[in-house]
Fold:
Amino acid sequence: MEPKVMKKEAFHVIGYQFEANLRGIEEGDLGKKTLARLQENAGSILNKCGNHVYLVQLYPMKEDFNAFEDKFTQIIGYEVSNAIDVPEGAILHTIPENFYVTYTHQGPEAELYKTYDYLYGKWLRENGYAPIRYDMERWDERYKPDDSDNEIDVFIAVQKK
Structure:
């Protein structure tokens, strides 16, 4: 499957956020702990649009940003149809309408960096797109992070150069 560009309407996510660099996320198991917290509190999040989860990664406006060294924000949450009744301790984040390059990563989550390296390091440049400060992953019933048949939909917010 080749990456493709699509327009995605604005939507809301209710979940939990943290700020760290990739090293801190891996060492502290922050993603797994945050996902477990979200799933434990799923019943208190009203108006969910299914059981899929979004991981939203917001990057600082920094020319030489390095995800292994520089902190950025991660939000792990459920898409909701109505942005009311945010549970205590959770946050509401609105994803704006935008164009995205989208691609489905296939394989263990530990190899996801290869997909990001390809998209950010080669595909965007070769196809005349520039990233816009954030990207997302959609985890659904195909999300089996340690398995070879794992699938993760990746969305990188882009604009034409």
Remarks:
- The CA atoms of residues 104 and 153 lie 4 Å apart.
- The chain has a mean pLDDT of 95.
- Strands lie at 4-8, 11-20, 48-58, 72-80, 91-95, 98-106, 129-139, 151-160.
- The first helix runs from residue 22 to 28.
